[in-house]
């Protein structure tokens, strides 16, 4: 076993060598989990200064785990990621795993909970067993499916039991890595659920500064020969994923016009499309 590095973490460092994942029998139910070898790195991620500090702190604790345990202290290892879609919850889970040198096990709760009821409890248990077997980041995506299941669970006693047993598994989670749950609907999670997490990390819509930072990342190899500050102002209220789509569309169209740099007209029309898309989405009922 690799011993954790003791060096204090001063900045997001290049990822540690990845611990190979043992594929145990319990991992053979792979439609419920996806084992991801994390590829994406901090250079591809824009985080708020507050969240950067949170993650550096968590990494430092993880790397100094032996030392802290010798002092009888527990390591923060259960995290709840909240915030609107497209703001980096999934991406951050991957980057975090990459930085820790851990594999990422992604379990989608909506798939698990809506499968045949008799099997659901067994599936959940297997997911947790896999995560207990080896150091990893266990990522419970679509965690709001849980809150939904509890809300309409009245007709389904079994479903309610399943949800409660999942909560118990979370309580007892003593994995060698992290448990990360992600939800877009934090307001629908009740206090009983919140209480189970050591840290709640909020992924908000990007600030102007963060939009400009994302422009820099996305346009790194395809520079814009015009000012982007004023463009960022027009994207207020969009998610990172929306801004990324606008950049990608503008780049593609500029390339198809045989341009070697970003065309302002294409960027503007991609923004208009992005705004239209946002309007349509705002008219749809929110789930
Ligand atoms: N904070 C961010 N920094 C850089 N890219 C982002 C960020 N948030 C989202 N993206 C881009 O949008 C895509 C979708 O984001 P994702 O992490 O799946 O959002 P969420 O899980 O919050 O719904 C990512 O794969 C990435 O390309
Ligand atoms: Mg996600």
Order of helices and strands: EHHEHEHHEHHEHEHHHH
CATH-level-4 superfamily name of the largest domain: P-loop containing nucleotide triphosphate hydrolases
The biggest sheet amounts to: 6 strands, mixed
Strand content: 5-15%
Give the proportion of residues in helices: 40-55%
Q: Examine the coordinates and then state which fold CATH places here, giving the name of the CATH topology of the largest domain.
A: Rossmann fold
Cα(first) to Cα(last) distance is: 45 Å
Uncertain runs are 1-16, 23-28
**Alpha plus pi helix count:** 12
- Shape descriptor reads globular
Based on the structure given, which CATH architecture of the largest domain is correct? 3-Layer(aba) Sandwich
**Average of pLDDT:** 85
- For the record, what CATH class of the largest domain applies? Alpha Beta
Can you list the ligands bound to this structure? adenosine-5'-diphosphate, magnesium ion
Number of domains: 2
Order of neighbouring strands in the sheet with most strands: 1-3-4-5-2-6
> What is the β-strand count?
6
The whole-angstrom Rg is 21 Å
- What class do helices, strands and sheet pairing give? alpha/beta
Summarize this, please?
The chain folds into two domains: 25-202, Rossmann fold, CATH 3.40.50; 208-279, Orthogonal Bundle (Helicase, Ruva Protein, domain 3). The chain has helices at 49-63, 65-70, 89-100, 109-114, 117-133, 144-151, 157-172, 191-194, 208-218, 229-234, 240-256, 264-283; strands at 33-36, 78-82, 104-108, 137-141, 178-183, 199-202. The chain is built from twelve helices and six strands.
Structure description:
Strands 1-3-4-5-2-6 form a six-stranded mixed beta sheet, sandwiched between helices. It is built from twelve helices and six strands. The chain folds into two domains: 178 residues, Rossmann fold, CATH 3.40.50; 72 residues, Helicase, Ruva Protein, domain 3 (Orthogonal Bundle). The relative contact order is 0.13. The N terminus is likely disordered. Helix 5 runs parallel beside helix 7, helix 9 packs parallel to helix 11 and helix 11 packs antiparallel against helix 12. With 287 residues, it is of the alpha/beta class. The structure holds adenosine-5'-diphosphate (ADP) and magnesium ion. The site of adenosine-5'-diphosphate has 14 residues, from helix 3 and helix 11.
């Amino acid at each position: 076993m690799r011993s954790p590095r003791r060096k204090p973490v001063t900045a997001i460092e290049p990822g540690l060598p990845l611990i190979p994942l043992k594929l145990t029998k319990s991992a053979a139910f792979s439609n419920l989990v996806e084992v991801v070898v994390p590829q994406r790195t901090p250079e591809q991620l824009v985080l708020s200064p507050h969240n950067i500090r949170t993650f550096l702190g968590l990494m430092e604790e993880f790397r100094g785990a032996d030392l802290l345990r010798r002092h009888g202290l527990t390591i923060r290892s259960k995290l709840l990621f909240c915030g609107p879609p497209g703001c980096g919850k999934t991406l951050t889970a991957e980057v975090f795993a990459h930085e820790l040198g851990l594999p990422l096990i992604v379990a989608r709760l909506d798939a698990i909970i809506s499968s045949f009821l008799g099997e659901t409890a067994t599936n959940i248990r297997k997911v947790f067993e896999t995560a207990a077997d080896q150091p990893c980041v266990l990522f419970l995506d679509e965690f709001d499916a849980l809150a939904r299941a509890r809300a309409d669970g009245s007709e389904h006693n079994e479903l309610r039991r399943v949800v409660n047993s999942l909560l118990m598994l979370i309580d007892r989670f003593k994995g060698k890595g992290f448990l990360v749950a992600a939800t877009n609907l934090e307001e629908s999670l009740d206090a009983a659920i919140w209480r189970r997490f050591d840290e709640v990390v909020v992924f908000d819509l990007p600030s102007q500064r963060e939009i400009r930072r994302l422009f820099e990342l996305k346009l790194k190899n395809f520079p814009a020969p015009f000012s982007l500050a004023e463009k960022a102002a027009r994207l207020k209220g969009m998610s990172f994923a929306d801004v990324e789509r606008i950049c990608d569309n503008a780049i593609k169209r500029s390339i198809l016009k045989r341009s070697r740099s970003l065309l302002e007209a294409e960027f503007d029309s991609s923004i208009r499309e992005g705004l239209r898309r946002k309007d349509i989405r705002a008219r749809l009922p929110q789930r």
